[in-house]
Design a protein that fits this description.
The chain contains eight helices and eleven strands. By secondary structure, the protein is α/β, with parallel strands linked by helices. It folds into two domains: 85 residues, no CATH class; 144 residues, Rossmann fold. Helix 5 links the parallel strand 7 and strand 8.
Length: 278
């Protein structure tokens, strides 16, 4: 016992200060890609390299419409590698959670040259209207401590990458219970469903029943590219795609998988949605 206490005092506090302070990211950490639409001379190589169709192009009558969907993006970096000139680069940004699916979609329209490269940027739209996450999370935490939040996690067909990050929320570094947030075994005790994976056809009925058993007011968070859009699995004979193809979704948390801080960011955003319904 003495040695345990001695080690505890020597190590000190292990819990990170996020979201009060920015997280300490590893040097090799890769966040989402960022796009300089004005400097992007040709979107075709990036669209061809993207394994999930997160970057899509549509050419018509001398114009090109480009769509970038963070809900499909797995942060693989293939778009950066395929694009010359630095118009696409991998950032260290991960706080992308949004309450509307359209907020994860960026669009741009170009006029084209005869060789298919971009001549001029006609318009670009950033779908996300998120304010600085630090301010919003600080406000959420200020109100959060007045009550607890119970979460039921549902694996609807995940590869278990997201589950590993969710488990990390309960370790001493992230310690999600310091915010009054805890995981429960039954949906009947839950305020929120945290759903991972593309919804397999074998899990469709179970997910619907879980959602129906969760008392109102309730919120649903779709976790990761698979939970949002089906990710690399998409919709096929075995998978229905994203969670919102089966049950209503209130918050989308991009990533493949989203890191624990990104999950916490999305959970606190979902808590704001639940308060509006209460």
């Amino acid at each position: 016992m003495f040695k345990i206490l001695q080690n505890t005092f020597r190590v000190g506090t292990a819990t990170a200060d996020y979201p009060r302070l920015a997280p300490r990211l590893a040097e090799q950490f890769r966040g989402c890609p960022e796009f300089d639409f004005a400097a992007w001379s040709d979107a075709r190589p990036a669209a061809e390299a993207c394994p999930t169709g997160a970057i899509a192009i549509h050419d018509r009558k001398g114009a090109r419409h480009v769509t970038v969907d963070y809900g499909r993006c797995i942060f693989c970096g293939e778009c950066e590698a395929a694009t010359a000139g630095g118009a696409v680069r991998m950032s260290r940004k991960f706080e992308l959670a949004a309450t509307e699916r359209r907020d994860l979609i960026l669009t741009a329209e170009y006029t084209l040259r005869s060789d298919g490269t971009h001549a001029e940027l006609k318009s670009s739209v950033s779908g996300t209207n998120a304010e600085e996450p630090g301010k919003r999370i600080a406000e959420a935490i200020h109100h959060l401590l007045g009550r607890s939040l119970s979460i039921r996690q549902v694996d609807a067909g995940s590869c278990n990458g997201c589950e590993q990050e969710i488990v990390a929320l309960n370790n001493p570094v992230h310690d999600i219970e310091r915010f009054g947030i805890h995981f429960v075994a039954s949906p009947r005790h839950a305020d929120m469903l945290l759903v991972t994976g593309p919804v397999t056809r074998n899990m469709e009925l179970a997910l619907r029943k879980t959602w129906a058993a969760t008392p109102a007011p309730k919120v649903v968070a779709a976790v990761g590219a698979c939970g949002i859009s089906g990710g690399i699995f998409g919709a096929n004979y075995a998978s229905l795609g994203g969670v919102d193809a089966v049950i209503p979704v209130d918050v989308y948390i991009p990533g493949c998988p989203p890191r624990p801080e990104a999950l916490l960011h999305g959970i606190l955003l979902a808590l704001g949605q639940m308060r509006q319904r209460a």
